């Protein structure tokens, strides 16, 4: 008897062969794409959120190490779950529409994503808010480029990016200084650290080494 061969090895190999054969079946491709989309959404959401939550939590949140790790885990899980559910919903609705009409049309993507966005990202919470704002900024850039490409607006003679950068920074600092409550909490925390905490110090320790003194003096 070979040392590496166990009683389950042959059935396991047969199961793997059957699974691989199933994955090659074209008639199941749409359903399998939905399942893999769920998997990719979960993995990508975790990859994106975990480092962001780690940095933001340790930079700006107080509390014990246990509380910080719990907050990181909760944020990572929420982002991963939501993105997995959205991809699953979107790809499922795309497959259904394509099957019903016999082909894919551009409106299918819009309708499927609208329904998925309403169902999965419709709750107004910090995680969903960050994702929506992230997408919104890229949508505005994308629509601007599309408008030029389609001829709806003329091609700029000079790169408009410096003007856009100036307006974005001018507006966000004006909001921070005079209408802070309109900004997202994490952005408020970042700007407080950069523009307000930099005006407070007592000695060399909290001027160069630390942002704020940890003693009660």
From TrEMBL:
Annotated TM spans: none
InterPro entries in alphabetical order: Pmp4
GO-annotated cellular components: peroxisomal membrane
Pfam families: Tim17
PANTHER family (alphabetical): PEROXISOMAL MEMBRANE PROTEIN 4
Protein known as: PXMP4 protein
Organism of this sequence: Tyrannus savana (Fork-tailed flycatcher)
Gene, per the UniProt record: Pxmp4
